[in-house]
Amino acid sequence: MQIILYLIMGIIIGMFFPIQASISARLSSHSKTPLTAAFIAFSLGSVILLIINLIVDPIGISVGIDFSYPLYVFIGGAIAGVGFNVANIILFSKLGASVTTIITVTGQMIVGILIDHFEWFGVPANPISITRSIGAIIMILAISLVQSKKKKDLTMELEEEKKSSKITWVILGVLAGFLPPLQTAINGKLRVATGSLLGAAFISFFVGAIILLILILITQRRLEFPMYDAEKKRIPVWVYIGGIFGIFIVTGNIILLPVLGSVATTMIFLLGQMIMALAIDQFGMFNLQKRKIDNRRIAAIVLTIIGIIFVKFL
């Protein structure tokens, strides 16, 4: 019964991913670089988590931290998270949204299985098995099914590239997919180092904000916060709050990983993403274009559930 509650929690947290992405996309449309939207999200998350830590567990972010742990424990999760976001920006322009999603999910499944099998970063052992492998393959098929089949997205841009260049970007996309499971696993280790869930989340957000600030200063030479849209109208306040959902996502990852394992955590989050993405499209939430639910996307959700059953219950 308890495992069911964790799975439901994972689905709910997974539903925050497309909400955060939609808000960040809206903010990115008003800024010179998508990095600015990410920086605002990380900064807001850092401030909120700092306040919560100071109220709930001030020792957790001060004397309670065990600095005997390797440096990667404190900065690795943030680097992986920022790296995945930056990689997605590049890959989307080179391969299109559909191909990028498929290959990065493939990378997530591969590393998730390895983390579970070899108990990397202290993750409880979940050895490789036929059923777990089948579940991961089903997950990849589900993601492939739900992606758009628009020629412009899948073929036109790729046809302009040389074959060797295509292979290079695909390989890089799979490698980029390695980053989210590594981020989750390292942040789980960070929780042990700080002795605090909230302290680990704060450090992850704070380090991520610093990394993004450095990237913005390198690429743009200055930091500019978008305040008005193209028509000189004030941007709505809700466009800036994507970082709040990021807090739930990061802390949820840290909570669920030791219980579900890396592969199942990734899969349950993806299921939540699919469900919320359907709702966003169906009702045109966040001022996005309405799209009716089709049988292909429903089938993808069913396949994802089957994949989770293979990984966690068979």
From TrEMBL:
Highest rank taxon of the organism: Bacteria
Pfam families hit by this protein: DMT_YdcZ
Transmembrane segments: 6-23, 35-55, 67-88, 95-115, 127-146, 167-186, 198-218, 238-260, 266-286, 298-313
Keywords: Membrane, Transmembrane, Transmembrane helix
InterPro entries given in the database record: YdcZ
Membrane among keywords: yes
Name of the protein this chain belongs to: Transporter family-2 protein
Organism: Metaclostridioides mangenotii
Source taxonomy: Bacteria, Bacillati, Bacillota, Clostridia, Peptostreptococcales
